Amino acid sequence: MLRKILTQTSSRRLLSSSVPPLFSKPSISPFSSASSSPEPPSSESITVEQPGTTISVDRSALYNLPDHYHESTPDSELVKHLKSVIKFRGGPISVAEYMEEVLTNPKAGFYMNRDVFGAQGDFITSPEVSQMFGEMIGVWTVCLWEQMGRPERVNLVELGPGRGTLMADLLRGTSKFRNFTESLHIHLVECSPALQKLQHQNLKCTDESSSEKKAISSLAGTPVHWHATLEEVPSGVPTIIIAHEFYDALPVHQFQKTSRGWCEKMVDVGEDSKFRFVLSPQPTPAALYLMKRCTWATPEEREKLEHVEISPKSMDLTQEMAKRIGSDGGGALIIDYGMNAIISDSLQAIRKHKFVNILDDPGSADLSAYVDFPSIKHSAEEASENVSVHGPMTQSQFLGSLGINFRVDALLQNCNDEQAESLRAGYWQLVGDGEAPFWEGPDEQTPIGMGTRYLATAIVNKNQDIPAPFQ
Ligand code: SAH
């Protein structure tokens, strides 16, 4: 079946013209965490004067984490907002709250107002590296639709579609499977109005109605709808969900082991009016509640932990996905960088393809964290008895087993030298990582591949077979 789908997969988008040696997101953050032992508690107690009010903030019990100082810049709207939240809250906010504001604050969040991808942006993702990525996701989607019994109506949901490139390549690549494309209702879950516009353009949409977020994509004649959350997507219809580099943008809490128990890393404003990390004096409610995630770890794993990063939003999202798939049929594909283990401390900030300080000029850099794949598996299995979880496997294994090497060979038959070079570089960036599983190794100019740092996992309805290529 896979072979048949591959040979029929069509492509109208021209081969990506070049694959610049850009930064792909995952790597080790240069700002190692608060692993240095916290300083003794600062004894200050500061008073903040506001017109008509006096707010006293007792910071005497907070621990300074001194390794995150940064250069001062004039306060942006988002910085002012964050500072006022901290001031009126009467103390620091969690790293999760900081991350959520920085990325998705409706006025000034990183994603909200501009195109952040590609050479002119801040980072590059697999769909932007090569059209083959979206095409291979298309192959996966058609295989799943076959396993679902070729339903006449399917909700194809993409979480965080960025520029819409993956979906556009998926629709072009699968356009010969008319029964499949005719079954589709596309639902894009996107918080950013600027990116919604780009998705609309790249899917070549024409508006069906001015009042609703609904259009028709001329790429396959499919209806396209936009939503702010997965909950808004209508249920009761077989559903296929794709989440590529979505989970890494979901807020994480960070905890640190101390003699007082698991305390939470928080973001505060120091006396110098700069953001700084502090450690809660005792376990926060979030620490007490969320550390239950560690019960999924082995005793040996737990013993070694000094820092833990936990994303309750990722767990809630997975539960919502699993409930839908369990009751409506279908499946979800999650691809992201992360680990098949508890994550200790991975939050990082990237601006213009370079790592920067997490607290520096918030809103101007992407924040992302490694995805905790075991927590996805456990959350899905807890939420629904009717789903099974497969993987994770590396992106390299995933794309290789789906037949990306056949695809690249087919594309190489019909291109000029420049396009061939770009194709090979793109191929290598998607599957490579210091070793070439399906292709001859790259030259020194080729950027580090995404092949092993990105993992793929699938959640499917138990009534269906094991999805390709997880068998
Ligand atoms: N999948 C795309 C983009 C990844 S970046 C690609 O691989 O190229 C993350 C995407 O998720 C962006 O489109 C961003 O605007 C969106 N996003 C981030 N947090 C979100 C949230 N809480 N709700 C909805 N969309 C979100």
UniProtKB/TrEMBL annotation:
Positions of the UniProt region annotated as Disordered: 17-51
Pfam families documented for this protein: Methyltransf_28
Reaction catalysis annotation: L-arginyl-[protein] + 2 S-adenosyl-L-methionine = N(omega),N(omega)'-dimethyl-L-arginyl-[protein] + 2 S-adenosyl-L-homocysteine + 2 H(+)
Species this protein is from: Camelina sativa (False flax)
GO molecular function, one term: methyltransferase activity
Key words of the record: Methyltransferase, Mitochondrion, Transferase
Compositional bias segments (type: Low complexity): 17-46
Gene: LOC104790505
PANTHER family associated with the record: PROTEIN ARGININE METHYLTRANSFERASE NDUFAF7, MITOCHONDRIAL (PTHR12049:SF7)
Subcellular location: Mitochondrion
GO biological process: methylation
Name this polypeptide is given: Protein arginine methyltransferase NDUFAF7
Family classification: Belongs to the NDUFAF7 family.
EC number: 2.1.1.320
Described function: Arginine methyltransferase involved in the assembly or stability of mitochondrial NADH:ubiquinone oxidoreductase complex (complex I).
